[in-house]
Amino acid sequence: MPPIAQLAAAAAATRSYPAVPGLPDIAITSEIVAAIRAGAWIVFNLSGGKDSSAALFAVNLQLDSLGHPRARRMAIHADLGRAEWDSTPDTVARIAASADVPLTVVRRAAGDLVDRWIQRFESGKRRYEALETYNLIGPWSSASLRFCQSEMKAAVIGPALARMLRGQQIISVLGLRRDESHNRAATPIAKADLRHAKAGNRHGTAITLWHPIAYWNSEDVFRAHGTLGITLHEAYSIWGATRLSCRYCIFASLHDLSASAAAPANTEAYRELVGIEARSTFPFQPTRWLADISPHLLSGGLRADVERAKADQLERRHLEASMPAGLRYVKGWPPRMPTLAEAEDIAAARRPILARHRLENRYPTGSAVQARFAELRVAAGRQMSS
């Protein structure tokens, strides 16, 4: 039996509680059942999207059937600031209120997600100027670097729960589904979360992640909204999006980006993000410029800036491809010293990129690049030995 099928079979064996008519059972384990019966805190992670809302309402009913006290349930929402739809805070509040669970809203202290994208590019420019990176680093989060989720949500919610519910057993409910993506295909029903409550910590705090709708599909989720009377975010009900996250998500489809751009309340954020594309020369998605979604919303000057950025991106990629492949980033970079000829190629490739972003050219010659690599190798050696 394939591993996923084994997980499904194991989960099915624990599904001994009646599901809502017309909806699938929730995925639950014997450990989660025991924790619920022991009165663990149940915390619903609410984004305002369809999956987290469906998970909240479906689990609430199961908790009632298990005799879990409602006084030990709460919802939590990580507010991403300008990146959020304007209606998301109110939608989240309405969903929590209709489910009769108190809501806590948390935010990253160092600014919102748009600030984080801007800060990432500014930091990347400083590192590139200092020849601490081989290629210029763009502002956006990506499939391989999901700081929009890790830093802005998990790293804000986790510590908040550990503080608020210190010494408690906490079940953190997330509306993740296996059919959402290849990366989520092996989502477990439940697992210990040791990031913010280490095993054996002195307070006795324990956090477990629970994914009760892991086996549901999108149709099940929408059906739950109709059956249970759950508020549906305007992104779906008015603008026809298939999923909700930020106004503009680095994972969003062309359809969903277009749906977001159609909402007048999202226009200002659209122009701000396109402005970051224009300044950075990095498209919002690896193969798609956000500027191309609704160019009619942009001023003539901003459209011209984007066209220059596209040309500069092509030049930058060509220049970076011309640099010695054997010196590209690996753990413990740089891997070796460049020859003088290689160092001269690096200096020549960096020159127009530095100029494009108005950065100081601190290492303009091959010998200067070699000297910098020598410094970097010494520093890397110290780090590896410490």
From TrEMBL:
Residues 42-236 form the Phosphoadenosine phosphosulphate reductase domain. Keywords: Transferase. It comes from the Bacteria. One of its GO terms (molecular function) is transferase activity. InterPro entries: PAPS_reduct_dom, Rossmann-like_a/b/a_fold. The keyword Transferase applies. Coiled coil: none annotated. Pfam families: PAPS_reduct. This is 3'-phosphoadenosine 5'-phosphosulfate sulfotransferase (PAPS reductase)/FAD synthetase.
